[in-house]
Amino acid sequence: MAGTSTSINSREVVRTADSVSEVLGDFAALLKPRVMSLVIFTGFVGLYLAPGTVHPVLQAVAILCIAVGAGASGAINMWYDRDIDAIMSRTKSRPIPSGRVGADEALTFGVVLACGSIMVMGLAVNWLAASLLAFTIAFYVFVYTMWLKRRTPQNIVIGGVAGALPPLIGWAAVSGSVPLDPIVLFAIIFIWTPPHFWALSLYRSGEYQAAAVPMLPVVAGRRETQNQILIYSLILAPVGVMPSLIGTVGWGYGAIATILGLAFVGGAFRVWHQASDRRCKQLFRFSILYLFLIFLALIADRAAGLPAVL
User: Is the pLDDT of residue 5 over 70?
Assistant: First the structure.
């Protein structure tokens, strides 16, 4: 009997551990970890490139606050969008529409993380970085999620401000200022955002239409979306080279950014010529790789100490 009791208790412990793991996984999913990874990376690049020195512990705190703030925005976004998330196939398995996390729990989770990340950033690093973080969270939640997303096809264009701010936050965390250099990094992400999301919306347009989200293909049609993707890509290519032109980094980055920019334009042209699902998916996936490689090249160039173009 004792052996049987021990076996039952062991199974209960395993079930409890599995349950806790599932709950933690669901709350982690609220943070949109894939989106967070790019936010963390671009924020780190801003911190790495900024002049000045900050203790490594404070650098880690700054990056953690950027990550938590981004995750908080994602959680509040999922709380507000739970109705349309339940309609779209790519989002219906998220924790709230699937019933794994309650809406009130998700909102509380997001608000606590948002407030905590701002306060820690201000107290441990500096209040300029904390103010920028607060503005980023507020813009994503109130301007993009609650105001723009369901009202205008320019939702991604204007809403892209929030996703483009992490390099400024990282830079401000070190230098306590926001000069031209991080503003150019902001511009790269800001201009990158529309073609990135419009490529996605082209092959997901039916879902956006069903959810009554006025993405550009739904409102203006596929042809206009193809045109806009190409226009933004043509602007992005030279803007991507600008960090080497203003002396933030050297010619090595400029060469890599030129090649990547031309590749992006090439993918956009293919979509402009024929917006098949395959080509749109290719451009969407390449756009993620493009942003990662652009910011990785910034780090590599600075580490190599290559001279500036001018």
Answer: no
Residues 27-43 have pLDDT tens digits of 999 998 888 899 999 99
Task: Report residue 298 as tokens.
Answer: 């910034």
- Domain at 28-178, CATH class: mainly alpha
Which ranges in the chain are annotated with CATH 1.20.120.1780? 179-310
Tell me the CATH number for domain 179-310: 1.20.120.1780
Residues of the chain with CATH 1.10.357.140: 28-178
What is the pTM for the complete model shown? 0.91
User: What confidence tens digit (pLDDT) does each residue in 39-61 have?
Assistant: 999 999 999 999 988 899 999 99
Structure tokens belonging to residue 76: 């509040």
Type of residue numbered 164: A
Residue percentage of the chain with pLDDT more than 90? 81
